[in-house]
Amino acid sequence: MLKLLKGSFIRLFRSSEFQIMPFLLMIMNFMMIFMERANLQDTDKLPGLPLFNAFFHVVVIGICTAVFVSLFIGAEYSNATIFNKIIFGHSRTAVYLTYLITCLFGTAVFHLTATGVTTLVGWIALGKPLFTIGEFITSYLLSLPVLFAVVSFYLAITIIVQNRAVAIGISASFSVVLLIFSMYFCDGKHYDNKYLDFLPDFYLNKLAMSDMLISEGVIEKLNFPVYPCILFGLFTVIGLIVFNNINIRNTPEGEI
């Protein structure tokens, strides 16, 4: 499995989808930062960078993750790479877990990159961050179980579909619907309902605005994402069961 991980990580760092994702996420953050900068009446008195600006991209990170996983894993199907790995003696479980670990790592890295760079740019544009290093680390770590649940779900979809274009269409469409549905509950009446954490985008929205919600007394503190952890385990088990029982395409995409 170590050889599988090594090869998968090498391909990850070379993949264009992994390299592009941080920039797409940072665009969202930069738009918010520069809008606030443009609205400043006195540029000599900078208000400071709120936590919301550093993590604003988590609102759409589900869509980006759906596209990333579908493209990255879909390419392995398109080139018949998955079939070849199994033919060469690697177990299906090892292959699946390798892809899961790689996608989890990739998502965590481009999420951290977007957040870190945004903080530096926001520091320059709006002034000293209004949050501590501890608050930054806590928010980042709390977002990971949610993102991992999202990754495991879209990986399972891509594994089942075995077609890159179809997987992107299904995953991206579902992610948009999930985002819209989650936004419906993004008001003060629902933020204390922990059962809504089953909607990953709902928790991420709550995380992005946690500093404002806490300061306004809407929530006491950001709760640990228990339900996303359950979803992560559930989707991982489902993905493993399906992958171990389906026929893997043995020809590159476009060939018969």
Protein architecture, described:
The chain has helices at 2-14, 16-38, 51-54, 61-78, 81-87, 92-126, 133-161, 164-184, 200-208, 210-215, 226-243. By secondary structure, the chain is mainly alpha-helical. The chain has one domain.
- Tell me roughly what share of residues is in helical segments: over 70%
Tally the structural domains.
1
Distance between the ends: 30 Å
The averaged pLDDT comes out at 85
Q: Given the C-alpha coordinates, what overall shape results? A: globular
Radius of gyration: 20 Å
Classification by helices and strands: mainly alpha
Spans where pLDDT lies below 50 across 5 or more residues: none
Largest sheet: none
SSE run: HHHHHHHHHHH
> In DSSP terms, counting alpha (H) and pi (I) runs of 4 or more, how many helices?
11
The total strand number stands at 0
Strand content: under 5%
Keywords:
256 residues; mainly alpha
Summarize the entry for a quick read.
The chain has helices at 2-14, 16-38, 51-54, 61-78, 81-87, 92-126, 133-161, 164-184, 200-208, 210-215, 226-243. It has 256 residues and is mostly helical. The chain has one domain.
Walk me through the topology.
Blueprint: H1 2-14, H2 16-38, H3 51-54, H4 61-78, H5 81-87, H6 92-126, H7 133-161, H8 164-184, H9 200-208, H10 210-215, H11 226-243
Helix pairs in contact: 1-6, 2-4, 2-6, 4-6, 4-7, 4-8, 6-7, 6-11, 7-8, 7-9, 7-11, 8-9
